[in-house]
Amino acid sequence: MNTWRWKSILAVTLLIGLVGCGGQEGSAEEQALTQQLQATGATVVRTSDSAEWPLSGTEQSIKVNGELVEVYVYESPQEANADAAGISPDGRKVKEGVGRDQITIKVSAANSPFHFYKKGRLIIVYNGSNSRVINLLQSVLGPQIAGS
After folding, report:
1. Phi/psi zone of residue 104: left (φ > 0), alpha (ψ -120 to 50 degrees), beta?
2. Which end of the chain has less neighbouring CB within 10 Å, N or C?
3. Domain ranges of the chain
4. How far is residue 101's CA from residue 91's CA, in Å, rounded to a whole number?
5. For residues 140 and 36, is the Cβ–Cβ distance under 8 A?
6. Is residue 148 a contact partner of residue 107, using CB atoms and an 8 Å limit?
């Protein structure tokens, strides 16, 4: 076969691969979370809104039934566990950094209640009081790890 044919075959193979991946954004865990929430009847939409928590995971914002929910994805469950360990039980303080460089960020008590969940490589934060959203998150993620 000549070079032109090899290049054509490679181009077609790449295009087929890209088409097969179309529409699937985020990690497998994020996709599973979205599918599980939708299976419970929730409306889930990716959004560019952001809350800028001092967590080290890669942030993705979604709206669950119109409510902003922050999803942080980590390279490993151990990294997610390390960040989760820095969240105060009431969710009002989050430690950032390590060792001597570690600082504690306090969140204003005037805001809505915070709800933190952890599942595998994900930490999920919901800053609100919509009981339907809280129940949906708990049904998919289990009990919250911090918050009120």
Report:
1. beta
2. N
3. 23-147
4. 21
5. yes
6. no
Assigned token pair, 80: 């997610």
The pair of three-digit structure tokens given for residue 142, joined into one six-digit string: 């289990």
Residue-by-residue pLDDT tens, the chain, 148 positions: 555 554 444 444 443 443 334 344 667 888 999 999 999 999 999 988 766 667 888 999 999 999 999 999 999 999 999 989 989 898 888 876 655 555 566 666 556 788 999 999 999 999 999 999 999 999 999 999 999 8
The first and second tokens of residue 1, run together, are 């076969």
pTM, two decimals, is 0.75
One-letter amino acid of 48: S
Query: Which amino acid, 129?
Result: S
> What is the CA 20 to chain-centroid distance, rounded?
23
Strand partners, 87: 94
Instruction: For residue 60, list its beta bridge partners.
Output: 71
Nearest Cα neighbor of 85 from 76, 77, 95 is: 95
Q: How far does Cα 88 stand from its chain's mean position?
A: 19
